[in-house]
Every structure is written in structure tokens, then in C-alpha cells.
Amino acid sequence: MLQKKICMIGAFATGKTSLVARYVQGIYSDKYQTTVGVKIDKKSVAVGGQDLNLILWDIHGEDEFQKIRMSYLRGSAAYILVVDGTRRDTLGTVFQLQTKVEDTIGKVPFITIFNKYDLSQDWEIGEDDLEELSQRQWTYCLGSARTGLGVEECFIKLAQMMI
Asked: What's the predicted TM-score (pTM) here?
């Protein structure tokens, strides 16, 4: 069985921990949990006839007070950029982080998930933003850690990109 390290990366409070909990354990909690440093989970999946052990590194969010330690990224086979659809500034953060990550670990597969789609009436992300990702040739998906919408599909799509 292959083991693949995947890092969850994004701004503070975008839902990285909730996405991992939804994917790995199938649960969601309204209680906010700030990540200190890194939290590691594991999920086994079969993709394209290949058994994979996904080692998910939920890295603390980046904000004006705390920057992501790039050393956490070493050995990553892929990463997920998490955007909070209700906070447009988190998209700018992932643009900056993607450049830093690529400078640190090189070109590896990644996907962007626009989280909190269950709150789409409050979204600050528009069609122009999604078009910008398409122009950059970034793969993205819409999801909700709360409802589970798109979460499994997003992780599976990334796993397929790694194989």
C-alpha cells in the first residue's frame, strides 16, 4: 500500500480541520477548533485499483500574526488549498501560499476547495474568481464540511491526480 502525505493549507478559519473531520470520520461540529501547529489524520482509499494510505496534515491557518512553517510541507505528495467562500480575502491568501508552497516543495498535485458552500447566499466568491482559477489551470471544487457536499469527491480527485 502506498502512503501519500497531503497538506491542508489556507488562511485562518477556512474550515481545514472540519473538512478533514468530515472526510476521515464523517462528522461535523459547529464548535470552532483552532489548530495549533499541525494535526495528522489518516484515511485508506482505493483509487484506480491502487490502495492508498492518505496521511492528512491539517496545518494551522495563516493570518497576519502567524505564518505557515514551510518545513511542515517536506515530503508532501500533494496539497489542498482551502478557501472560505464567505471571505474573499482567503482566495488572495491561497494565491500567495501556493507560490510559497511550490517554491518550497516544487510542483506536486494540488486542488483548491471552496468551503462553506452551504452558505452560498453569503458568498463573496464570484464567477470571475472561478474563471481566474481556470485560467491558472487550477483544479477546484465546491464543498461544505457541514453538509459533506463535494468533500469526498475533492479528496478522491486529488488522489487520482497523484496516481
From this structure: 0.94
Q: Which amino acid is at 11?
A: A
- What angle do helix axes 151-162 and 16-25 make, rounded to 10 degrees? 90
Q: How many CB atoms lie within 10 A of CB 13?
A: 15
Grid coordinates given for 10: 489556507
What is the C-alpha separation between 149 and 154, in angstroms, rounded?
10
Please tell me the distance from the alpha carbon of residue 70 to that of residue 134, in angstroms, as a whole number. 26
Domains of the chain: 2-162 (3.40.50.300)
Distance separating alpha carbons of residues 83 and 125, to the nearest angstrom = 9
Q: Nearest to residue 86, comparing CAs of 120, 127, 130?
A: 120
Pairing of strands 2-10, 50-59: parallel
- How many Cα atoms occupy the beta-carbon half-sphere of 16 within 13 Å? 31
pLDDT along the chain (163 residues), means of 10: 95 95 91 76 94 94 72 94 97 95 96 96 95 95 97 97 93
- Which pLDDT does position 115 carry in this prediction? 98
Beta bridge partners, 62, equal 11
Amino acid making up residue 112: T
